[in-house]
From TrEMBL:
The keyword Ligase does not apply. It is a multi-pass membrane protein. It is found in: Cell membrane. InterPro entries: Transgly_assoc. It comes from the Bacteria. Its main location: membrane. It comes from Neisseria weaveri. The lineage of its organism: Bacteria, Pseudomonadati, Pseudomonadota, Betaproteobacteria, Neisseriales. It holds the Pfam family Transgly_assoc. Signal peptide: none annotated. This is Transglycosylase associated protein.
Amino acid sequence: MGWLITILVGFIVGVLAKFLHPGKDNLGFIMTTILGIAGAALAGFVGQSVGWYQVGEPAGWIASTIFAIIILAVYTRVIKK
């Protein structure tokens, strides 16, 4: 059940990141989900290490979306070159 929730949260975060990031991204369903999972994992690691928030706090959603946008921006810059 944990994997299903991880995939669902990753998809939601990925869709939010794609919606908030300007420009055209040609990412499909699977890449959007992977983007969200990567953003959530990176935000969880950084946010909890620095002490910004604990597991289950709403700040995790915000940080996950911000980190997913950062990953998406880097991805689009690398792909364009």
